[in-house]
């Protein structure tokens, strides 16, 4: 008797598996699944191994070490061995060009320096016995202040070679320090950050700035004394800050002196022009809390803040430049940085407010004034010391300036209000290089020129007398 076939027999698995097509398909599918599974496993294992076996260091463009590392990477290095030298070749380079016109031939072409650095992408470098994979990447996000895209350099090496990084960072820093040896770095505010202003300049020797007798020793002695007393301040809980105000007419050497002082102390200069448009109280306060290390703060045109006495409007807006109270708060408000040496300069001491002259804001005020007899003599010696060894021409020059009443007395000894600046004397000497008589003959040009009232001068270009 026949039995009704059970439903299972309708879709009999046996029958299915007996079907060679189906069995083959299943076989293939399970093989594929196993392979995918193995691949996933392998990737996970590789990831885990990578995490365990490799170390990764990321340096972002914001970090001060970023340019040092790029410079270190572009160092030429000997890589012995055929494979190693092929492996570590850098095929992607980017170039940074600086031009200078300081060639021996004035009319000649400008000098250009090309600085090659590893470009974006992956590279391999060898350091000692360690191979290091380097990946320089540009991100799609950008710095809101400067508009520059974010950038990182990643360096990866074996865990067992992780100590190479310390050595690399040390070497990169030494390299950067060596490049700046004998130079003064000048920082200026770019947006909300400090950025080097041009290339580091050659240090200006302190001896090349000629101030009146004793003035230079006075400031230099005070700054050096302050620098040696950090512990004294810290022990007594006093903020380690000192401020100087240099005032006087234009071209008396204030800025030059601060630059030379920075060189002497091996400091950088961080400069802000207070009359600059867009410099606000908040920005100033923020920048002062983020000063580059080992730098002198230079606030030029401090009188700009004396003029702008306007307090904040009710809507919190304080105008596009720094207010007086903003300056005071930045210098010693609660948010002020703990360690700082600041120099303020102004041409208009009469606009000064006594509130500024307080320990912690300005501890020392110095007038750097018009050229004195002492300064004129010293400047002469610096320029003509080799051609006027016995100093006879110098005496004639000084006598001439006396006759012209340029040292504050006329030739009869009565006070005169005629003065000249050290910058003008420098200009005269530069015009008469090696020509002492020429300098004496042209000394009359040192008399400060007063510009005529507008209606007496015809329109058009004004020719400056030679
Ligand atoms: N006392 C000085 N000794 C040597 N050089 C000087 C002196 N004074 C001025 N100079 C020269 O004159 C130029 C202008 O000087 P500097 O910029 O330092 O003047 P300043 O006092 O800062 O003027 P300002 O008040 O206009 O800013 C520089 O080239 C500098 O070398
Ligand atoms: Mg100046």
TrEMBL record:
InterPro entries: AAA+_ATPase (IPR003593), AAA_lid_BCS1 (IPR057495), ATPase_AAA_core (IPR003959), BCS1_N (IPR014851), Mitochondrial_chaperone_BCS1 (IPR050747), P-loop_NTPase (IPR027417). Residues 29-209 form the BCS1 N-terminal domain. This is Mitochondrial chaperone BCS1. GO terms for biological process: mitochondrial respiratory chain complex III assembly. It is a single-pass membrane protein. GO terms for molecular function: ATP binding; ATP hydrolysis activity. Residues 240-372 form the AAA+ ATPase domain. Keywords: ATP-binding, Hydrolase, Membrane, Mitochondrion, Mitochondrion inner membrane, Nucleotide-binding, Transmembrane, Transmembrane helix. SMART domains: AAA, BCS1_N. It is found in: Mitochondrion inner membrane. It comes from Tolypocladium capitatum. It catalyses: ATP + H2O = ADP + phosphate + H(+). Belongs to the AAA ATPase family. BCS1 subfamily. GO terms for cellular component: mitochondrial inner membrane.
């Amino acid at each position: 008797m026949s039995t009704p076939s059970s439903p299972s027999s309708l879709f009999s698995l046996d029958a299915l598996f007996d079907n060679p097509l189906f069995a083959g398909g299943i076989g293939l599918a399970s093989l594929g699944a196993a392979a995918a599974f193995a691949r996933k496993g392998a990737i996970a294992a590789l990831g885990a191994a990578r995490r365990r076996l490799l170390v990764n260091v990321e340096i972002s463009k914001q970090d001060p070490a970023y340019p040092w590392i790029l410079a270190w990477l572009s160092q030429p290095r000997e890589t012995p061995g055929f494979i190693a030298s092929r492996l570590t070749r850098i095929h992607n380079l980017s170039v940074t060009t600086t031009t200078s016109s300081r060639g021996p031939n004035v009319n000649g072409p400008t000098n250009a320096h090309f600085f090659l650095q590893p470009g974006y992408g992956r590279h391999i470098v060898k350091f000692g016995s360690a191979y290091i994979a380097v990946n320089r990447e540009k991100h799609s996000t950008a710095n809101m202040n400067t508009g520059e895209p974010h950038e990182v350099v990643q360096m990866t090496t074996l865990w067992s070679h992780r100590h190479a990084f310390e050595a690399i960072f040390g070497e990169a820093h030494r390299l950067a320090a060596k490049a700046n040896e004998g130079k003064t770095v000048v920082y200026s505010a770019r947006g909300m950050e400090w950025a080097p202003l041009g290339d580091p300049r050659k240090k200006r020797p302190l001896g090349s700035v000629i101030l009146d007798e004793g003035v230079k020793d006075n400031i230099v002695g005070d700054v050096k004394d302050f620098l040696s007393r950090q512990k004294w301040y810290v022990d007594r809980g006093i903020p380690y800050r000192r401020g100087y105000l240099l005032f006087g007419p234009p071209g008396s050497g204030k800025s030059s002196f601060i630059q030379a002082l920075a060189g002497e102390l091996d400091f950088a200069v961080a400069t802000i022009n207070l009359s600059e448009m867009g410099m606000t109280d908040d920005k100033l306060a923020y920048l002062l809390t983020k000063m580059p290390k080992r730098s002198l703060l230079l606030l030029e045109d401090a009188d700009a803040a004396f003029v702008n006495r306007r307090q904040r409007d009710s809507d919190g807006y304080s105008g596009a430049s720094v207010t007086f109270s903003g300056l005071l708060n930045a210098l010693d408000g609660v948010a002020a940085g703990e360690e700082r040496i600041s120099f303020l300069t102004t041409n208009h001491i009469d606009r000064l407010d006594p509130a500024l002259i307080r320990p912690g804001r300005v501890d020392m005020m110095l007038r750097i004034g018009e050229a004195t007899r002492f300064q004129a003599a010293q400047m002469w010696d610096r320029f003509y010391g080799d051609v006027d060894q016995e100093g006879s021409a110098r005496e004639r020059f000084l006598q001439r300036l006396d006759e012209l009443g340029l040292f504050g007395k006329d030739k009869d000894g009565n006070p005169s209000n005629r003065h000249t600046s050290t910058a003008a004397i420098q200009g005269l000497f530069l015009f008469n290089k090696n020509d002492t008589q020429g300098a004496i003959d042209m000394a009359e040009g040192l008399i400060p020129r007063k510009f005529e009232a507008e209606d007496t001068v015809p329109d058009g270009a004004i020719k400056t007398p030679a």
